[in-house]
Design goal:
The relative contact order is 0.19. Helix content is 34%, strand content 8%. It has 283 residues and is α/β, with parallel strands linked by helices.
Length: 283
Amino acid sequence: MTAVTAVDAAAVSALPSAAGSSTSAASAISLYAKPTPGFEDRVANAVAILKAASEKHLGTIVQSTSLGVEGMVLTDMIARHQLPIAIGTLNTGKLHAQTVELISRIEDRYAVDVEVYEPVNESVIQFVRQNGENAMYESVDLRKGCCAVRKIEPMSRMMAGRTAWVTGLRREQSDNRSEVSFHDVDKDGREKVIPLADWSWADVWQYVAAYDVPYNPLHDEFFPSIGCAPCTRAIAVGEDFRAGRWWWEEEGFKECGLHGSNAHGGVSSLGAISTLSPIGQTA
């Protein structure tokens, strides 16, 4: 396999719509925010979905945010409309500093507490001792094992006692997500609430611009989808939104396990919690 280097991971290129723009001066808002027909209706629909879910699952619903721009839009809606939805995130220990810094920005801006779930330290130590710090580059199985330790197990604690969760999936993000609906059910029977399912990239940034929503500055550097630092790069002209995630792997279904796949290769309702054990072996 082709060796993965730090240069690969740090390469900065451009999103399709940024072709010809100045990468040193342009912000994501200036590049992508655009009013489109039906935008206000989509905003109203997303808020209505959140309100209905918060009433249906009063006290047992959480927004699981990766702190990407879609998650920030949902957090803003929740806080702006004072909805009783908890906000939770995973600090995997491998996030960019810009991503971690958003946690305090959310708390300061919206006067809310963000629930932060971290991996079990002993599990991380064991995984790294057995497989190395850069095991994710060695094989898909090891990459998923790292995800299991750093994301899936902490996510299971976030979901404990919850009957529903809110996520920022959008159909436009990838072929795998092209058929997501506004409501789904995960493998444990929890309702999966997806208010932005029909939103475009322009819609997301139009909302950010309209409501002055804080966001990860890596989005200004052509990172549309931001995960752990070793597993995320900027994307090139013509690549899809998630091309910068696990880019060294062969083409195909690429998810970490928080969202599963159905028989057709798309994101299904049965992927909230993976079957991987804490040290990344298949159960």
